[in-house]
Amino acid sequence: MAIGLVALVVLNATTGSGRLSAAVAFAGVAACLGFAAFGRLGRRGAVVLTVDSDTVYLGNERNGIVSRPLALLESVSLRGPAKETDPMRGAADHDLRITGQRFLVLGFRPQVDDHGVEAVPAETWRVGVVHSDPAAAEVVDRLRSVAPEAKPDPTRPDPRQGDPTQTRPTQTGPSAESIRTDEERPVPPSGPRIVDAGSDEAAERLWEEATRRHDEILRDYGAYELAPDLLLRFPAVTDVTLEPVQEFQLALDEATALRTDRYPGSRARADAYQQAVAVLRRRWIACETNGKQIKTSYFQASDQADLDRALKLYNHAQSSTAPAEQATYYGRVRDIVTTMTDRGVLHPPEPAVAELHAVTRRAIESRQEP
């Protein structure tokens, strides 16, 4: 604006042409307004942080959005405000702080694939949030209900604690939080609920989505029940003596009991089933994640060696084209599994054992054919 006015004065003093002066002044003012509008209306990259029933989504509009399993979230803390803005320049940069805003520090455990290989390493994300925004506060509450608050560094004094040399009253009993059971702990919301659906058609669609997720979990778990190689590689996924497996089995029984062949018509019944499936999905993710992480490490060294040898024998049998070799390898695997089961060390699902006996029998029969 000032540029246009200065140009108008100068041109009037030098040229005396009113039309030329007006045109130049108008162009200067228009350019200034254009730059100002671009600065206000130009597209700006936004930081994204959201969560659904089992996934956390993070990133920005410039570099894209990534997802991480909610079950791998192990710590959450709110810090700041940030002193600078980091634009997340690359895929490996997990810093999304915004100047003047508080930010969440999210810690994720590493992800492992079906072979037990670390697919995504442990990560720490710093994501700017406007905590006064109700939507942002809801996301923070969801994350905190899943993962504990990150503990401060014990080597750094906390100014809120005052003088550490002064004596303080000691707690004589467990806190209320420490004695709460898993059922009493808050459960993160699992998306739109059937009971709140705006119409019967919407409620039925949500019920159908719950049945689809239920079937998906059954297929995933069924793979571990039927595949002997998965039993040998990840026995903890189906070991009923382990707590994550027990919790999954209880959730599976609950969801199965509430499932009906058709939409039940009662929203309360349908909603109860939907919420049971949401719990089941979280329990399954926790169960599978735990099993893939610990693999066979909870066995004694000699038992770990037996399982490793059995897995190698099974793979040799799978790759062999000679029935005699297959029968020998499968038979040795069966003997190892049977011995460990009889000792009470291994707790395999019956379908996996039945499949192992079946492939052994087929190999023996093929060897005996003329």
How are the secondary structure elements laid out?
Blueprint: H1 2-14, H2 18-41, E1 47-51, E2 55-60, E3 64-69, E4 73-79, E5 95-96, E6 102-108, E7 111-112, E8 118-120, E9 123-129, H3 134-146, H4 200-226, H5 228-233, H6 243-258, H7 267-294, H8 301-319, H9 323-342, H10 350-368
Parallel strand pairs: 5-9
Antiparallel strand pairs: 1-2, 2-3, 4-6, 6-9, 7-8
General description of the model:
The protein has 4 domains: 2-35, no CATH class; 47-150, Roll (PH-domain like); 194-225 and 239-294, no CATH class; 299-370. With 370 residues, it is of the alpha+beta class. The protein has a 4-stranded mixed sheet with strand order 4-6-9-5, with helices on one face. The chain has a 3-stranded antiparallel sheet with strand order 1-2-3. A two-stranded antiparallel sheet has the order 7-8. The chain has 10 helices and 9 strands. Helix content is 50%, strand content 12%. The longest helix has 28 residues, at 267-294.
Main traits of this protein?
single chain; 370 residues; alpha+beta; PH-domain like; four-stranded mixed β-sheet; 9 strands; globular
Low-confidence stretches: 36-45, 150-189
Largest beta sheet, briefly? 4 strands, mixed
Give helix and strand order, one letter per element, not per position.
HHEEEEEEEEEHHHHHHHH
User: Average pLDDT value?
Assistant: 78
In CATH, what is the class of the largest domain? Mainly Beta
Shape: globular
Nearest-angstrom radius of gyration? 31 Å
CATH architecture of the largest domain: Roll
Which fold does the CATH topology of the largest domain refer to? PH-domain like
Task: Count up the domains.
Answer: 4
* Percentage beta strand: 5-15%
How helix-rich are the residues, as a percent range? 40-55%
Strands across the major sheet, in which order? 4-6-9-5
